[in-house]
Every structure is written in C-alpha cells, then in structure tokens.
Amino acid sequence: MKVAMIEDDVELADILLEFLEGFKIEVVNFDDPFVAISSIKNEKFDALILDLTLPDMDGLEILKKIREFSDIPIIISSARSDLDDKVIGLELGADDYLPKPYNPRELEARLKAIVRRKKQIDDKKSDFLVDEDSREIRYKGNLLNLTQAEFDILSYLIKNKNRTISREEFLRKIPSLNPNSNEKSIDVIISRIRQKIDENKKHPKHIVSVRGVGYKFVY
Prior knowledge:
Layout: E1 2-6, H1 10-21, E2 26-30, H2 33-42, E3 47-50, H3 59-66, E4 74-78, H4 83-91, E5 96-99, H5 104-125, E6 128-131, E7 136-139, E8 142-143, H6 148-159, E9 165-166, H7 167-173, H8 183-196, E10 207-210, E11 214-217
Parallel strand pairs: 1-2, 1-3, 3-4, 4-5
Antiparallel strand pairs: 6-7, 7-8, 9-11, 10-11
C-alpha cells in the first residue's frame, strides 16, 4: 500500500512513517499542500492522511480541491476538536476522522479498512477483477488467457486507472518484460490485450491511446 500524507509536524510524520513501514505501508509525506495536490493528481496513491492545520492552505480547502479530481480514500488526522470541522470534513468527502493524539496502530487499522472498502466498491463497478495471488484477471466473469507480460501490463493499467502511463514507465515498472523490449514492444502487447478483451481497435473502450505518450485505462 502506498499512502500520501500531508503533515507539517516533522516529528509526528517521522514516527508514522517508521511505524506504518512495519506494516508494509509506504508513506510519502508532504509539508507543502500545493506539491501534495499536484503529486496526488499525477501519481498513484491508495489513501491520503490529511492534517487540517497547515501553512499556506487550510486542510479543509485541500480536501475540497482533491475531491474535484480524485476519489482517493482520505483520513483526516487533526488536533482540531471542533465538531464543525469534523462534520464539514466528512461532508466534503473525507472517509474518516481521527482526532490527535491517537495510537498509530489505530491509524494503520483504519487505513486498511478504508482502502479495502474502496477496492470492494471499485470491483463491483468494474468489469475487471484482478487476483494478484493467482495472477489472474477476469473480464465480465471470464478468465483471460494472458501471458506474464500481458498480465503485468493490464493489472498495472487497472491499478492506475484514469492516469496516463508512458511507454517508458511500462519499461521501468514491468519486470516481466524482455530486457530487450522497446517502446514498440509495448504497443504490440497492448494490441494483444485489446484483442483478448474484444476492444474495437479504432474505438477502444478501456485501453485508450494517448498520442505521443502511452496509454490510459478508463472505466
């Protein structure tokens, strides 16, 4: 799990980073709200831990801006005890509110809970079900016959839905690709995947070409 955190208390951020790392949760902390918003827009994070009292921009305003473009699960982590802050935060789209101080173990449990709920909702909405353990992908209930590289590329696209993935990123991130693979190889594999999910080559429904860059998975 990869989690973004917007927290300007460096000592607390370090404690949470170290603790959550023990549960295989990678945390990227931002003390600059503007950098955080840009990163969440352009990178894949499973959840966000958001403080409310921050320099330059109030946490509730950050929440509002993020909800304009992302449905990322958000836990507000704040020392502000005003009931109005909690209510407004939840109304603006936060998934949970954890008042400081708290035990990091509770944060870990809540993170896993909201990410699990999000995945269940996405699975119900999606025609694609990915099983990482068995390395299988089902489309509309049917098991796809995929090579190792096809599975890795399609699952990577699904995990990063609505984000443009460059051909160069595929070559960096997909270890099952042949070491001699080039950007043209990515196009060939994408073409094979499209055939297996019956996509119209001229008007693909899920794997959309982004001219000059790469591909984006949409649903």
